[in-house]
């Protein structure tokens, strides 16, 4: 039946709504980052925001990190499943969740908020966001330990609960949060920032909707999804067709020394992209598992990179994508598997598709990169106030070379994205440490006609009496892979130099005490090379030498270029 | 006499106002070609052309594209960088971010200083400004020797925590000047006293990279003015929307980075004030680029989060200096049409500039430009090209269009229309970046179009974006220069000093403001600005205890006492709630102290315009066929703008010409002349705001 008052919205209006949605998403993103108290949010941008339609399809999503692409849609869907039918959703309500195995869950510190948007009592959309809040309790400060073996050690679990009811906070939940976390002021500060993002998005959507009306809204949303789908399909037609396979290994699970194989078989046709992870290792004892949402994020990142990185990453873009993975693998863990370091599993879900297709898609994919977040947590004291502070940050490293240029030096891994390192001047101001160097290293690796990008070395000298160091540094055993004769990159290292002159390697560190005057050295991988190093033009080798990107010995041995002292 | 010149990529413009008693106050304008890389010659040319008596000129203000030009074309000086030992790679690592999230082939912006020219020196300052490791003076001679050997022309110095204690940066600079007096040396703390080492280093590097070019230029300009008998006050337009004395600008020429666009935006605000429009989108189409800005509530849009060449998919080069917030794209009159590898027609960003210029100049331009397309479609009168100064080489224009059309398989008039459509699409996207993409509905704005080409595209773009009204100022081609005449002097002083906003820190807070304001008064006194003409605004970047990012809040004027702190705190809570929907009952920290000092030097009015003596038909110069694309080829009346009086109404299709601009009124639009001579164009002939 046709509504007689129905007027076909003009294309210009549709475009304004689409741009308005993008602007709302940008605004939510900025608000969350700027209002937050946790350094992982405001510097590392470890969060995302999005807008879904009333049926839960993601229409726009703004990501600080690709780790979250696969998460918000299932969060909204599960809110609808749990609260939609009972009509137990009202204007001003906000739902919260962090369960790692459902609701788009990743690991416990990532808390997701979903807010329904109403216009005249009709549900028209949802705003959602998910961010790595400062602290959620658990066995160690910062919640995540590299040796957790079940989720109960990983802090407070939040099933889908109502955090705000008709615009007012549910005090019982806030109280529960406050007593279960070590830094309640910060955690609640992050909560308020997330609430701000949800509400700002809600406000903007209502404005758009009331200005342009239901029909235009619907059409704009459908148009956005269909556009992204058509871009994916168009790109799919240019990809090589057939089946491609690869295998790679996560170093270990933090409990035993055993490598963890991850396998993928990718099948590409004109209409579909299937990623099949059958044959991947089962759930591991340590926290290097991910639930299904993490797996989805990993696959979606590889899919976007291969198809069309520029078009919107919404529901429509992923229609041609299918993911096959049996339950209870390291990529499809269920309760009570520990998932604290889920990002390592997500990265390897991306990594095996990347490795399988890189030789066939030289314009889309470089050689292997650091493939690790290299997350560090330092627990110390604020020099000014004496309060406990938490420095948490990922570390940049080398990316693989591409067919026509050297790899990028010192950049965050693929699972990170619009992630910013914490300025040294800010770190020293807040955390009782002195940074002695932050520079590229020249460890052997990454040789090629195109050279792998450089990893970095970061030295912390402890100036306070004692701090506690936690972290995990991936690819400390299995180095980034090269392509077409390019050499592998270098391995990561985390090393503590004690005052007595001894050193200890700590690639999986859990609350290791480090005393005044001692040094923590963190070294990230250099990326893989592309092509035979002996075919690198001599002039470029000489320039590398002049710039100190390679040593004289490497020039001679890897590139066959002899240089006099 | 008061005078402003504005140097763009293609043209150099001049506007002068005779403010002596008895003068009409009607601005005098002139335009010449820019003369890259020696831009000062263009200024001399335009002074000669306008026949200005510099001896009778009291005020000279100048905007210039020379710096941005040096950066975008990577023609800055060979630059060296001196950093704290262990940190030379900070510039190349940057923040490590990848804005193009799903693109695994992302390439970071290439650092402007290669690794071998980034030298480290032993020294260390703590975050509290304490010297931990004394400066190793003895390491400098070798660093300088390396730089000399590598033909370095400028040196940036960026040491850790120099925002808190600049002693080592100062010592390095002094030593460098002693060892090598003729090299440019720029310490980071002199540009910004904010923490975050990468951004401060990037700022210092950009400043050093452009310093020799800019200084050579400013010296040459200074000399040229002097030799013409100028003895008044000379000023330079800055990115922050204010002007600075030319002598001051020589210390920090990087602050004049966005000076030209700033003039246009200030002019637009002034026009808006005059006609009661506070929501404006500006469109400035010059020879090389198109620039847009959005003005809401008559506020000049200033950003402190500025980065050169930053886009949604590129991190760009941060520059921590306050700048007018504009979007600029490579689409101007000289933009060249070309075919990409796939055989698709593209327009810009490469420009034929002033040399060889468009094909119509007949100076070797062998590819079609936007200007040539306007000539072919009859929008620009071939008999009145550049105000009749140049006879266009139409044979050459036809030839280059035929060449391109053969490759495209189209007829050449269709090629000309296609080029204009593409140029319009590019400019529409730029306008969207400042409006819809930031959540503004263009229907609520007025488009003010200027620059040599703005008025040719404005109505078509307004229609694309559903902007109901377009305003064309008088002499739009030199409007940015006119805008510069409307500027006050401005300096910004920002210092990072995290302090809790409470009674216990009252005296420290007062002392910081006092120090900044004392500096402002001294700097302006040195420029000869009397105290009664100095206006000081206080701001503070505040945050809740535990947050990182701060909110900029106006800090009360007057004594810094308990009452002022209370008002500042209330202001912050309110501003925080407005921005983030909530406020917290928590401690408030003031991170950055910011003083903006304005010295009033100008009061420019616009003389009124009476009704015309003759009838409207007297203003018709000609009739010719003009190609209006989808609206067809129409017999079109050509009006002379200077003959239009107040109240005149002109229906489209029409062309209104003035000496260096053509205003295109497509069918369905309608223009009215107001009492200042401004043209108000009702884009669809149905805007309720038009009373005629």
Question: Summarize this, please?
Answer:
Chain A is an alpha+beta fold. Chain A is built from ten helices and 20 strands.
Textual characterization of the structure:
The complex is a heterodimer of chains A (565) and B (692). Chain A contains 10 helices and 20 strands. Chain A is of the alpha+beta class. Chain A has 2 domains: 11-228, no CATH class; 366-565, no CATH class. In chain A, strand 9 and strand 10 form a beta hairpin. In chain A, helix 4 crosses helix 5 and helix 6 packs parallel to helix 7. The model of chain A has no long low-confidence stretch (mean pLDDT 93). With 692 residues, chain B is of the alpha+beta class. Among the domains of chain B are: 79-202, 3-Layer(aba) Sandwich (Rossmann fold); 489-599, Dna Ligase, domain 1 (2-Layer Sandwich), CATH 3.30.1490. Helix content of chain B is 30%, strand content 26%. Chain B is built from 15 helices and 34 strands. The longest helix of chain B is centred in the first third of the chain and has 31 residues, at 197-227. In chain B, 53% of the residues are buried. The interface between A and B is large, with 79 and 60 residues.
Topology:
The complex is a heterodimer of chains A (565) and B (692).
Chain A: H1 11-35, H2 39-42, E1 47-53, E2 58-63, H3 72-84, E3 94-97, E4 110-119, E5 122-132, E6 161-165, E7 168-169, H4 171-180, H5 184-236, E8 242-250, E9 260-268, E10 273-276, H6 292-306, E11 321-324, H7 342-357, E12 375-381, E13 388-393, H8 424-431, E14 433-440, E15 456-462, E16 466-472, E17 493-497, E18 503-505, E19 508-515, E20 519-523, H9 538-547, H10 552-559
Parallel strand pairs in A: 10-11
Antiparallel strand pairs in A: 1-2, 1-5, 3-4, 3-6, 4-5, 6-7, 8-9, 9-10, 12-13, 12-16, 14-15, 15-20, 16-19, 17-18, 17-20
Helix pairs in contact in A: 1-5, 4-5, 6-7
Chain B: E1 2-7, E2 11-17, E3 28-33, H1 39-50, E4 59-64, H2 66-72, E5 79-84, H3 90-93, E6 118-121, E7 124-125, E8 131-133, H4 140-149, E9 154-158, H5 167-179, E10 184-187, H6 197-227, E11 233-237, E12 243-245, H7 246-251, H8 259-275, E13 280-285, E14 290-295, E15 302-303, E16 306-308, E17 317-319, E18 323-324, E19 327-329, E20 335-339, E21 345-351, H9 370-376, H10 394-408, H11 412-434, E22 446-450, H12 451-465, E23 469-472, H13 479-484, E24 489-500, H14 506-526, E25 534-544, E26 551-555, H15 562-580, E27 588-599, E28 620-627, E29 633-640, E30 649-651, E31 654-658, E32 661-665, E33 670-673, E34 679-682
Parallel strand pairs in B: 1-4, 4-11, 5-6, 5-9, 9-10, 13-22, 22-23, 29-31
Antiparallel strand pairs in B: 1-2, 2-3, 7-8, 11-12, 13-14, 14-19, 15-18, 16-17, 20-21, 23-34, 24-27, 25-26, 25-27, 28-29, 30-33, 31-32, 33-34
């Amino acid at each position: 039946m046709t509504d007689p008052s129905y007027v076909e919205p003009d294309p210009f209006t549709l475009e304004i709504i689409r741009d308005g949605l993008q602007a709302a998403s940008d605004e939510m993103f900025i608000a969350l980052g700027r209002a937050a108290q946790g350094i992982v949010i405001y510097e590392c941008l470890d969060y995302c925001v999005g807008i879904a339609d009333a049926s839960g399809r993601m229409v726009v999503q703004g990501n600080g990190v690709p780790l979250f692409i696969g998460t918000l849609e299932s969060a909204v869907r599960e809110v609808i499943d749990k609260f939609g039918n009972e009509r137990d959703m009202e204007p001003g309500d906000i739902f919260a969740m962090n369960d790692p195995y459902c609701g788009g869950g990743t690991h416990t510190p990532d808390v997701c908020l979903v807010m329904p948007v109403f216009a005249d009592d009709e549900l028209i959309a949802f705003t959602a966001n998910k961010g790595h809040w400062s602290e959620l309790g658990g066995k160690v400060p910062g919640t995540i330990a590299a040796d957790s073996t079940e989720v109960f050690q990983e802090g407070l679990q939040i099933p889908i609960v109502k955090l705000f009811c008709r615009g007012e906070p549910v005090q019982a939940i806030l109280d529960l949060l406050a007593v279960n976390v070590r830094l309640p002021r910060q955690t609640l500060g992050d909560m308020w920032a997330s609430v701000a993002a949800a509400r700002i998005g809600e406000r903007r959507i209502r404005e758009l909707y009331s200005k342009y009306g239901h029909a235009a809204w619907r059409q704009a949303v459908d148009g956005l999804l269909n556009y992204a789908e058509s871009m994916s399909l168009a790109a799919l037609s240019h990809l090589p067709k057939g089946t491609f396979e690869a295998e790679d290994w996560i170093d270990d699970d933090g409990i035993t020394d055993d490598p963890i194989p991850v396998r993928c078989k990718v099948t590409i046709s004109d209409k579909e992209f299937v990623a099949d992870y059958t044959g991947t290792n089962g759930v591991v004892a340590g926290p290097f598992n991910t639930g299904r949402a993490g797996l989805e994020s990993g696959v979606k990142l590889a899919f976007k990179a291969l198809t069309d990185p520029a078009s919107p990453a919404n529901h429509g873009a992923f229609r041609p994508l299918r993911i096959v993975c049996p339950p209870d693998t390291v990529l499809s863990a269920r309760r009570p598997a520990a998932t604290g370091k889920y990002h390592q599993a997500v990265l390897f879900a991306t990594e095996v598709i990347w490795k399988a297709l890189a030789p066939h898609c030289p314009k889309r994919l470089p050689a292997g990169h650091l493939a690790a977040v290299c997350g560090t947590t330092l627990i110390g004291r604020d020099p000014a106030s004496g309060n406990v502070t938490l420095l948490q940050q990922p570390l940049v490293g080398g990316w693989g070379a591409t067919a026509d240029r050297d790899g990028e030096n010192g950049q965050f891994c693929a699972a990170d994205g619009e992630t910013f390192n914490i300025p040294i001047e800010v770190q020293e101001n807040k955390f009782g440490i002195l940074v002695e160097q932050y520079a590229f290293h020249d460890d052997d690796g990454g040789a090629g006609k195109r050279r792998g990008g450089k990893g970095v070395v970061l030295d912390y000298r402890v100036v306070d009496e004692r701090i506690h160091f936690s972290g995990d540094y991936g690819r400390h055993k299995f180095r980034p892979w090269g392509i077409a004769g390019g050499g592998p990159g270098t391995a990561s290292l985390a090393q503590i130099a004690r005052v007595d002159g001894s050193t200890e390697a700590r690639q999986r560190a859990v609350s290791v005490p480090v005393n005044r005057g001692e040094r923590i050295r963190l070294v990230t991988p250099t990326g893989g090379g592309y092509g035979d190093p002996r075919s690198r033009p001599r002039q470029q080798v000489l320039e590398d030498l002049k710039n100190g990107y390679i040593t004289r010995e490497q020039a001679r041995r890897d590139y066959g270029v002899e240089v006099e002292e | 006499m008061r005078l402003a010149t504005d140097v763009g990529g293609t043209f150099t413009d001049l506007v002068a106002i005779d403010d002596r008693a008895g003068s009409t106050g009607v601005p005098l304008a002139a335009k010449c070609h820019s003369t890259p890389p020696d831009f000062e010659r263009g200024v001399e040319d335009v002074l000669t052309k306008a026949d200005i008596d510099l001896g009778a000129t009291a005020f000279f203000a100048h905007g210039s594209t020379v710096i941005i030009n040096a950066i975008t074309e990577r023609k800055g000086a060979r630059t060296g960088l001196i950093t704290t030992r262990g940190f030379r790679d900070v510039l190349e690592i940057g923040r490590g971010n990848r804005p193009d999230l799903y693109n695994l082939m992302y390439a970071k912006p290439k650092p402007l200083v290669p690794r071998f020219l980034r030298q480290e020196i032993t020294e260390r300052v703590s975050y509290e400004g304490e010297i931990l490791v004394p400066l190793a003076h003895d390491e400098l001679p070798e660093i300088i020797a390396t730089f000399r050997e590598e033909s370095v022309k400028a040196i940036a110095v960026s040491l850790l925590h120099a925002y808190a204690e600049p002693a080592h940066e100062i010592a390095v600079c002094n030593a460098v000047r002693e060892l090598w007096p003729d090299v440019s040396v720029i310490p980071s703390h002199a540009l910004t006293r904010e923490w975050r080492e990468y951004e401060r280093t990037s700022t210092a590097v950009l400043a050093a990279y452009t310093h020799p070019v800019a200084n050579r230029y400013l010296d040459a300009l200074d000399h040229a003015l002097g030799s013409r008998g100028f003895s008044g006050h000379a000023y330079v337009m800055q990115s922050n929307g204010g002007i600075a004395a030319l002598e001051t600008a020589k210390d920090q020429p990087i602050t004049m980075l966005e000076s030209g666009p700033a003039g246009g935006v200030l002019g637009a605000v002034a026009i808006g004030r005059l006609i009661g429009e506070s929501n404006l989108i500006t469109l400035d189409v010059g020879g090389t680029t198109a620039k847009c800005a959005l003005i809401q509530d008559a506020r000049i849009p200033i950003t402190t989060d500025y980065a050169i060449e930053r886009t949604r998919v590129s991190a760009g080069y941060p520059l921590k200096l306050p700048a007018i917030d504009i979007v600029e794209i490579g689409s101007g009159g000289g933009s060249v049409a070309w075919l990409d590898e796939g055989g698709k027609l593209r327009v810009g960003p490469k420009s034929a500039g002033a040399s060889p210029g468009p094909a119509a100049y007949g100076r070797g331009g062998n590819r079609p430009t936007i200007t040539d397309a306007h000539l072919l479609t009859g929008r620009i009168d071939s008999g009145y090209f550049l105000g009749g100064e140049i006879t266009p080489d139409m044979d050459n224009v036809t030839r280059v269009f035929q060449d391109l059309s053969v490759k495209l398989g189209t007829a050449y008039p269709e090629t000309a229309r296609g080029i204009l459509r593409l140029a319009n699409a590019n400019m529409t996207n730029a306008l969207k970046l400042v409006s819809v993409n930031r959540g503004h509905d263009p229907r609520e704005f007025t488009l003010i179009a200027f620059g040599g080409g703005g008025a040719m595209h404005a109505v078509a773009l307004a229609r694309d974006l559903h902007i109901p009204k377009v305003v064309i100022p008088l002499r739009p081609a030199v409007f940015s220069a006119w805008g510069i005449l409307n500027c006050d002097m401005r300096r910004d002083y920002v210092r990072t000093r995290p302090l809790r906003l409470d009674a216990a820190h009252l005296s420290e807070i007062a002392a910081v403001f006092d120090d900044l304001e004392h500096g402002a008064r001294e700097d302006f006194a040195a420029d000869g600005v009397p105290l009664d003409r100095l206006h000081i605004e206080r701001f503070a970047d505040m945050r809740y205890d535990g947050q990182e990012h701060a909110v900029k809040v106006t800090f009360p004027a007057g004594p810094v006492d308990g009452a002022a702190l209370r008002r500042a705190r209330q202001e912050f809570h309110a501003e925080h709630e407005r921005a983030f929907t909530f406020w917290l009952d928590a401690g408030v920290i003031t991170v950055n102290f910011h003083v903006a000092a304005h010295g009033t030097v100008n009061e420019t009015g616009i003389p009124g315009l009476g009704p015309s003596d003759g009838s409207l038909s007297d203003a018709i110069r000609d009739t010719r066929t003009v190609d209006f694309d989808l609206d067809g080829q129409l017999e079109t009346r050509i009006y002379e703008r200077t003959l239009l009086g107040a109240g005149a109404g002109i229906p489209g299709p029409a062309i209104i010409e003035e000496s260096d601009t053509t205003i295109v009124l497509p069918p369905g639009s309608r223009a009215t002349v107001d009492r200042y001579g401004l043209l108000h164009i009702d884009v669809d002939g149905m805007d309720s705001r038009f009373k005629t």
